[in-house]
Specification:
Blueprint (H helix, E strand, L loop, with lengths): L2 H15 L28 H13 L6 H29 L54 E10 L4 H13 L5 E5 L10 E9 L2 H6 L1 H6 L6 E5 L2
Antiparallel strand pairs: 1-3, 1-4, 2-3
Helix pairs in contact: 1-2
């Protein structure tokens, strides 16, 4: 079994056996989390089956709300199509009558008077600082001189090469995890040297990092955990 398939199996297990808010263990019969009081998603029925299928195929899951959104989108698209069809039919059956305004011959060009638009410059986005490098998600760099907390998604020995870590970071970014990047553990006192660490998020406290662990696990990284990062 490939590592990716194993991670997806862990993500499915995490979605069924842990609280999506705090990551605490739960039983299938629990309706509320015993640690944080969060109302837990059910693990039996149609929606949980769809959730597992999504995780098995894509390796990440946006949340149960996606099914309501898809149903609403389908209903809206059907309504829009029906409205367009009715409007087109009415226009096809209605005769077109052209009338000229008094004192104006049909086809006579009118002079166009353009009104200058006023732009409120206060609402324009600020330009980036000169020389500031904006890195895409998946290539986020840990801020220089900053200590904090993050979520370790997966770690690879440096002998395996950086390309493996970059591939995992790209996958995490595609799963909509925030602030995904790679840390060389040798530059941080709180990490064991010799690893490329794929992380997600830069948090000021352990509480905030712990709250996001379950999201990372449901995105396909079943072994994700919070970790302090110090220089």
């Amino acid at each position: 079994m490939t590592s990716e398939a194993a991670e997806r199996r862990l993500a499915i297990a995490a979605a069924d056996t842990t609280c999506p808010r705090c990551g605490a263990a739960r039983a299938a019969s629990d309706r509320y989390c015993l640690d944080c009081g969060f109302r837990l998603p059910v693990v039996a029925g149609t929606v949980p089956g769809l959730r597992r299928g999504w995780l098995r195929r894509l390796g990440w899951y946006p949340g149960d709300w996606v099914w309501v959104s898809l149903l609403t989108l389908l209903v809206a698209a059907g309504g829009a199509a029906a409205a367009i069809a009715i409007t087109t039919n009415k226009r096809a059956n209605k005769p077109i009558v052209l009338t000229a305004a008094p004192g104006l011959a049909v086809g006579e060009p009118r002079s166009a008077v353009s009104t200058p638009q006023v732009v409120n410059t206060a609402t324009l986005p600020a330009a980036p600082e000169p020389g500031a490098a904006v890195r895409p998600n998946g290539r986020t760099a840990w801020p220089t001189g900053v200590s904090g907390w993050t979520i370790v998604l997966v770690s690879y020995p440096k002998v395996s090469g950086r390309s493996t870590a970059l591939s995992a970071a790209t996958r995490a970014a595609k799963a909509n995890l925030r602030q995904v990047g790679i840390i060389d553990s040798g530059g941080f006192a709180s990490l064991q040297p010799g690893y490329f660490v794929v992380f997600s998020g830069i948090y000021g406290s352990k509480l905030n990092a712990d709250a996001a662990v379950s999201t990372a696990r449901q995105a396909g990284f079943g072994g994700a955990y919070s970790r302090q990062i110090t220089r």
